[in-house]
Amino acid sequence: MAQISNASARWEGELKSGAGTVSTGSGAVNGVPYDFGKRFEGAEGANPEELIGAAHAGCYAMALSGDLGKAGFKPERIDVQAQVTLDFVEGKPTVTAVHLDVAARVPDASEAAFKEAAEGAKAGCPISRLLKAEITLAARLE
Question: Is residue 131 a contact partner of residue 98, using CB atoms and an 8 Å limit?
């Protein structure tokens, strides 16, 4: 059975002078503001790429824990940092890369077993797979 999660965004105004908010259906993220400066000019605050990074880091940590468990290990701690690169490709802003930096405490795991689980989790976590997924759209004017 599919699990459906919801999120929303509202943008008001033009690209450079406008502003928006993002929220999640659960309320964990609620009305977080973002704007052009935060996204493209390095101003402090949230942006969509940062939220993708948080989602990817969280998803990857869970996937790695699962893969280590399947290999017979019990991880004590998994810390993941995600670095999402937004660059311009053919004049359009594009997410060009995500780098995951993981440090874990896994008693009795060899380096080889850990690396195998880490690579498997990178390929198999739902957010890694999302970045290759089909995107569908329903659009309407009000």
Answer: yes
Q: Which of 62, 63, 66, 36 is nearest to 48 (CA)?
A: 36
Q: Where are the alpha helices (DSSP H) in the chain?
A: 36-40, 48-70, 111-124, 126-130
Return the domain boundaries, the chain: 1-46, 48-142
Instruction: Please name the helix (run of DSSP H) or strand (run of DSSP E) that holds residue 88, with its range, or none.
Output: strand 77-89
The topology (CATH level 3) of 48-142 is GMP Synthetase; Chain A, domain 3 (3.30.300)
Contact present, 47 and 39 (Cβ < 8 Å): yes
Q: Are 109 and 118 in contact (CB under 8 A)?
A: no
CA distance 82 to 14: 30
- Give the model confidence (pLDDT) of 28-87 as tens digits: 999 999 999 999 998 998 999 999 999 999 999 999 999 999 999 999 999 999 999 999
